[in-house]
Structures are given as structure tokens and as C-alpha cells.
Write a structure and sequence with these properties.
Elements: H1 3-58, H2 64-81, H3 90-103, H4 114-123, H5 128-144, H6 151-157, H7 161-165, H8 175-186, H9 197-201, E1 213-218, E2 224-230, H10 233-246, H11 252-280
Antiparallel strand pairs: 1-2
Helix pairs in contact: 1-2, 1-3, 1-4, 2-4, 2-6, 2-11, 4-5, 6-11, 8-10
């Protein structure tokens, strides 16, 4: 082989090596850019959601429930994306979250649980009590493993954010509601009518039709002795709640109807707000 040909081959080999090194370097640069972009995109995504939360607080309070449920839905979407171990870009997404915390003076939250990090990123540190409420709701959504698209409807069906945060999801009854249901039931029948001179002395025409609480003792002959009669809303409600607890199986139909009505009202409010928001947009 001629010297010239050998030189050409050597040059060709060297060029190939150089080209290969250049390709590897280029691929590494592209990979680095992709990784950085994932981090930046996550940071910017959180920033946009934080702005939405600010707008909701300052300008769109009239549609607060619908918008709040939507914000919680998106916060849940962040959680899903930041816990997807099958995503090859997961570590870069997490870096985007860490960067957002640092850039917004939230470094103290870096060691907190992920739901708490997400909630403080989205809603800021403006109201600690509300942050606690939203964090409880997000944790509840995660535990229920709801489909992302169903979150607003599911929150409404559960009675709303406040019901979930108080540990009464699925429209759990408040003390006031229990008393009202029991009161409606007991008002349908009269067990006995009591009259005496002492009771007459306590009579007040202005209180006609109002409810009182009494302390009674059951006697051996089956009668009841009345010891006192008290005009107190608190005492009456306590007695009605006790009646509800003792007769909740018998009150099941009323409870089911009440729960259904609450759910329908929540869903109707949510739908109306969503429609109004779209029209306004």
C-alpha cells in the first residue's frame, strides 16, 4: 500500500474518532438541555398554578368553590406527576419543585411531605389555617385514589372542602343537622300533654310554639315526674342529638334524603359556577 493511501486511512480514522467524540458530546449537551428544560417546565408550571390561586383569592371569589376544587385538582395532578416512578424525567421534575421552593423563599418546606410542599407552592403562606385545610383535603384525595378528572365532582359529593377537612367526608352530618332531623321527627307526634299550676306560673305567651327541655324521672307506676323545664336552644339541641344517636337506624331514610339533597345542591352550585365562569371568560 502506498504511503499516501495509508495517510488517507489514518486521517479518515482520526476524523471518525473525532466525529464520534463530537457526537457523544452533542448528545450529552442535548440530554443536559432536556433535563434542564424538564426542571424549568416544572418550576414554571408551579408558578402558573400559584398565579391562578392568587387570582382566585383576589378576583373570582364569587366562583370560589368551583375554582378552588379546580386548583385542588391541579395540585393533585402535580402530586401524580411528581410520584410517577415510571417517568424517566421524574428527578428533573422534582428538581423543578425544589427550585421553585428556593426561588420563592420556601426552603423551610424542603424536608416536608410532598402534599405539604405542593400546597404551600400553590397557595403560598398567606393563611396557615387554610393551608392546613387544603393539605388535609389533598391527602384525602390521594388516599381515595380518585381519577384526576373526577376530583371536583368527588369533592362536591363528599360535602366540600370543609367537610373533608373536619373528618366528615361523604356529607357527614353536623350536630345542627342531626338536631334538625331529630326535631322534625319528634314534632310529628305528641307522647303526652302535661299541665300543672307550677308549670302555669312559668307560662310565657311570647314563647308559644317554641321548644323547651325538661328533666323527668320515670316512676314505678310508669308515669313521669317533671322536675324542671328550661328554655334553652342548647339544651333542646343536645336532647335532640341524643335522640338522633339513639334512633339513627329509624332515621336512616331521613338521613339518606338529606344527604342526597346536600350532594345535589353542592353539584348544582358547582355546575352553575362553572357555567358562569365560562360565560365570563
Amino acid at each position: 500500500m502506498k504511503a499516501t493511501e495509508m495517510n488517507e486511512i489514518a486521517v479518515s480514522v482520526d476524523a471518525s474518532k473525532t466525529l464520534g467524540i463530537d457526537n457523544i458530546a452533542t448528545q450529552q449537551k442535548v440530554s443536559a438541555l432536556t433535563s434542564a428544560q424538564q426542571s424549568i417546565e416544572m418550576r414554571e408550571r408551579i408558578g402558573r398554578l400559584s398565579v391562578e390561586a392568587s387570582v382566585w383569592e383576589s378576583e373570582a371569589y364569587a366562583h370560589s368553590n368551583a375554582i378552588l376544587y379546580g386548583l385542588l385538582q391541579k395540585a393533585y395532578g402535580l402530586y401524580l406527576d411528581l410520584t410517577d416512578n415510571a417517568d424517566g424525567n421524574l428527578k428533573y421534575r422534582k428538581q423543578g419543585l425544589a427550585d421553585y421552593l428556593s426561588l420563592n423563599g420556601l426552603d423551610s418546606y424542603k424536608d416536608k411531605l410532598l402534599p405539604q410542599k405542593i400546597v404551600v407552592c400553590v397557595f403560598g403562606k398567606r393563611d396557615r389555617r387554610r393551608l392546613s385545610t387544603y393539605q388535609l383535603v389533598l391527602r384525602y384525595i390521594i388516599a381515595q385514589d380518585w381519577a384526576l378528572s373526577e376530583v371536583p365532582t368527588k369533592i362536591a359529593e363528599a360535602g366540600g372542602v370543609q367537610e373533608i377537612s373536619l373528618g366528615r367526608p361523604s356529607g357527614g352530618l353536623t350536630t345542627k343537622e342531626k338536631a334538625a332531623l331529630a326535631g322534625a321527627r319528634v314534632s310529628q307526634e305528641v307522647l303526652a300533654t302535661v299541665h300543672s299550676e307550677e308549670l302555669s306560673r312559668q307560662f310565657n305567651p311570647e314563647a308559644t310554639g317554641e321548644q323547651f327541655a325538661a328533666v323527668l324521672t320515670q316512676e314505678a307506676n310508669g308515669s313521669f315526674s317533671v322536675h324542671c323545664v328550661v328554655k334553652s336552644v342548647t339544651a333542646v339541641n343536645s336532647a335532640l342529638v341524643a335522640y338522633f344517636a339513639a334512633n339513627k337506624d329509624d332515621l336512616k331514610r331521613e338521613v339518606d334524603e338529606h344527604q342526597a339533597a346536600k350532594t345535589q345542591a353542592s353539584l348544582a352550585e358547582l355546575n352553575d359556577a362553572a357555567v358562569s365562569h365560562k360565560l365570563a371568560a
